[in-house]
Amino acid sequence: MHQMQKPHAGRRRERGMKIGLLSDTHSKKGRSQRMIDHLVSQGAEFLIHAGDIVKPEILEQLKASGLRYVAVYGNNDAKLVEYHDRYNLVQEPHYFKLGGATFKLMHLPFYMTADAEIVIFGHTHVFECDFKNRTLFLNPGECCARDRAFSSGAMLEITQELLRVTHYSRAVGSDTFEERHYTFERS
Question: 107, 125 in Cβ contact below 8 A?
């Protein structure tokens, strides 16, 4: 009879919930679809859009992914109000729980207090991953590649003990996503 051994606690890689993040898609439907497809292919179980969606077609892309999602209004999303009841659109700051963690979602970085374990924001078009006072502040960067020559997004994996962030960037005209990895211990 074969006996199963318990993995050593220090070596075990615990599988957590994977959450795909994108922001500042503006009107770039092709770039947003490529990022959504990439996040799904990397195992995303939930999608978060941190605002400046701009086009209702991008909301449809989120919905058509087949994953649960949430999207927050950005400062360029006033015209999307008419679609509020059709899609999971929320106003900032939006608090929720997911994967055993508390989240605060916003577009504008005006509510940068550590009143949730994970604070997701957009607007600056710059990827940011900063762990301060047991709070992860995370901006997936610009998906639209307006201010930079690459499209940016991220994956957040939540385990009982860790927060893992993978930053994805794809140069305009390229099919290849580059990756950078960050790991933080949860308290």
Answer: no
Rounded to whole angstroms, how far apart are CA atoms 138 and 179? 16
Question: 47 is written with which tokens?
Answer: 């999608």
Using CA atoms of 85, 154, 39, 37 in order, give the dihedral in degrees to the nearest 10.
Answer: 80
pTM, two decimal places: 0.91
- Give the chain's length: 187
Residues whose CB falls within 8 Å of the CB of residue 127, separated by 6 or more in sequence, listed in order: 139, 140, 141, 152, 154, 167, 169
- In this predicted structure, what is the pLDDT of residue 14? 59
Tokens of 129: 């991953």
Q: Which pLDDT does position 6 carry in this prediction?
A: 34
Closest alpha carbon to 150 in 24, 59, 52: 24
Strand-strand pairing, 128-132 and 118-120 = unpaired
Question: Mean pLDDT for the chain?
Answer: 92
Kind plus residue range of the DSSP H or E element containing 32: helix 29-41
What's the distance, CA 8 to chain centroid? 31
